[in-house]
Design a protein that fits this description.
By secondary structure, this protein is mainly beta. It has a single domain, classed as Sandwich (Jelly Rolls), CATH 2.60.120. The protein is 13% helix and 44% strand. A hairpin with a 3-residue loop joins strand 11 and strand 12.
Amino acid sequence: MIHVMHFVPKLVIAALYAASLLICGPSSAENYKVPASVERQVSGILGEAIEATQRLPRPSSMQAMQQGAIRFVRFTIADGDIGGAPTDNDPTHSRIFDKPHSERAEIRTEDALRSNSVYEVTFQVRFVEGFYGDSETFFQIHTGQKPPLMFFFRQFGRTHLLANFLQGCARTCGHNDQPDYVRVKEFYPASGMFGRWHQFRFLIDTSNQGEMSIYVNGQPFVTNQPVTFPSQHRPYLRFGVYRSGSEEGNRTSVVDYRNLSIQRVRQAGQ
């Protein structure tokens, strides 16, 4: 049995949710600012300090849950859940990237990673349902402008993991820039991906011209892949769902996380 560890009383959640539907409809991007107490609770479950720098579509977009002795954090995105980032409902940004809006429920690590360093990052993730779109991320390494890594789980045609690695933007990139990315993907049977915990391990060199290795359940997904970390920005990690909105509507996507660990291994180049 799964137990929800409520951030606020049930009546408050119900009232907030009902008010959001009456005032803004299901796509409100400004209806829930995550309290500091919730950030602390989620940090305690994941094992690293996190923060919600953007508002979530609704309180149920991120929930602390427990199944037996296992505690985890669940993210849920439904159709029309426009994110709280400035670009998520910006007409210019949407026109450039050919989408009506962006749907998002994400948190980020509180302390940015250091540049010119090698890190080992591990966490466990469980895909519960959804991820039918062709561009739904469940993990990003970001800089506030363009992400050095976007990691997608997709049931678009065939079930697979897709990683996009930034190339170029050596100093900085704007929100509406479209730099090059190298795409790496591996196919997996859907029956083996949903409803079970998967272990992800990243070895990350955050040098300007860095590299990255990714392991899924102990098996190499990609090794020593070159990736750019823009020199004017410090990278950090993002967890949760980020995807393009759809005129035809998106299905609900649900994903769980636990056991996050971030370890600085050494200075790059040593």
